[in-house]
Amino acid sequence: MSGTGESGSHVRQLRHEADALKKEAERATDPEERQRLLDRARKLLAQSEQESAMAAGDIYPQE
Predict the structure, then answer these.
(1) What are the CA-CA distances from residue 25 to residues 10, 18, 30, 37, 54 (Å)?
(2) Measured distance CA(28)–CA(36) in Å, rounded
(3) pLDDT, tens digit, for every residue of 13-34?
(4) Which of 43, 21, 45, 42 is nearest to 33 (CA)?
(5) CA 24 to chain centre
(6) How would DSSP label each residue in the chain?
(7) How far is CA 49 from CA 3, 37, 41, 61, in A?
(8) Is the Cβ–Cβ distance between 44 and 21 less than 8 Å?
(9) pTM summary value
């Protein structure tokens, strides 16, 4: 598998995990837990966007 394919797979996995966390947050009864789950989902989505852009050659990782 090429590096781009691996990146795409990892990006999809991150997005899937973020979706699962959002759904879990919807079911959470504790407001603090709900916020923690939503924050984690946002971080995963941001990471997936960054990795997707890097794989496309749009941005380069910070050094």
Answers:
(1) 22, 10, 9, 6, 29
(2) 10
(3) 999 999 999 999 999 999 999 9
(4) 21
(5) 15
(6) --HHHHHHHHHHHHHHHHHHHHHHHHH--SHHHHHHHHHHHHHHHHHHHHHHHHHHTS-----
(7) 16, 18, 12, 12
(8) yes
(9) 0.75
For 29-55, the pLDDT digits (tens) are 999 999 999 999 999 999 999 888 877
Amino acid identity of 47? Q
> C-alpha distances in angstroms, 21 versus 6, 25, 28, 42?
23, 6, 10, 9
pLDDT value for 42:
97
Name which of 37, 39, 49, 45 is nearest 15 in CA terms: 45
